Amino acid sequence: QSVLTQPPSVSAAPGQKVTISCSGSSSNIGNNYVSWYQQLPGTAPKLLIYDNNERPSGIPDRFSGSKSGTSATLGITGLQTGDEADYYCGTWDGSLSAVVFGGGTKLTVL
Amino acid sequence: EVQLVESGGGLVQPGGSLSLSCAASGFTFSDHYMDWVRQAPGKGLEWVGRNRNKANSYTTEYAASVKGRFIISRDDSKNSLYLQMNSLKTEDTAVYYCVRVTSSWGGFDYWGQGTLVTVSS
Question: Predicted confidence band at B100 (pLDDT cuts at 50, 70, 90)?
Answer without folding.
Answer: very high
